[in-house]
Amino acid sequence: CVQPGLFAWEVYVDILVLTSGGNLLDSISLALCAALMETVLPKVEVLEAMEEGEVVQLRVNDRPEAGTPFPLRRLPLCVTVAQIQQRFLFDVTSEEELCADAMLCVVVDAKSGEVMGLHKLGRGLFDLAALPSMLQRCRAAAAALMQQLERELSLKDHS
């Protein structure tokens, strides 16, 4: 928020998928988190009106070093689980997706490990008895993805 009740940032994200080898939601959420973690908002100052009726103006400093990092309170990462008979697979290919009896997309806040949402994909029934252990594995997968992403971003910053 630049000035409460008056100016705030509004962010839109467009994603263009050129090809998919499976696990599309997971890939998109990871790319989105990476992009937002690297986003720097320009420094904006609100210049108060000098006279009554004058329009409030904004002064924008778009130098990256003057900006502030995008305020990410949560990092939602999708971790999709495919069930094939009694087995559960992570990071599935498009061929494995076609063979799956059921699929479940678990959205995990990579910062806190909290499960933010569940979405059943496609047809079939997911074994609910396996859900508690599956959610724990999804939390671990999200944490591992986050560690890898942070390593990659820190390597980029040092090069």
UniProtKB/TrEMBL annotation:
Presence of keyword Iron-sulfur: no
Statement: the UniProt record of this protein carries the keyword Cytoplasm: yes
Annotated Pfam families: RNase_PH, RNase_PH_C
Subcellular location, principal: cytoplasm
Alphabetically ordered keywords of this record: Cytoplasm, Exosome
GO biological processes: exonucleolytic trimming to generate mature 3'-end of 5.8S rRNA from tricistronic rRNA transcript (SSU-rRNA, 5.8S rRNA, LSU-rRNA); nuclear mRNA surveillance; nuclear polyadenylation-dependent rRNA catabolic process; rRNA catabolic process; TRAMP-dependent tRNA surveillance pathway; U1 snRNA 3'-end processing; U4 snRNA 3'-end processing; U5 snRNA 3'-end processing
GO molecular function: mRNA 3'-UTR AU-rich region binding
InterPro entries, A to Z: ExoRNase_PH_dom1 (IPR001247), ExoRNase_PH_dom2 (IPR015847), ExoRNase_PH_dom2_sf (IPR036345), Exosome_comp_Rrp42_subfam (IPR050590), PNPase/RNase_PH_dom_sf (IPR027408), Ribosomal_Su5_D2-typ_SF (IPR020568)
Domain of life of the native organism: Eukaryota
Family indicated by similarity: Belongs to the RNase PH family.
Domain Exoribonuclease phosphorolytic: 5-42, 75-131
Protein name: Ribosomal RNA-processing protein 42
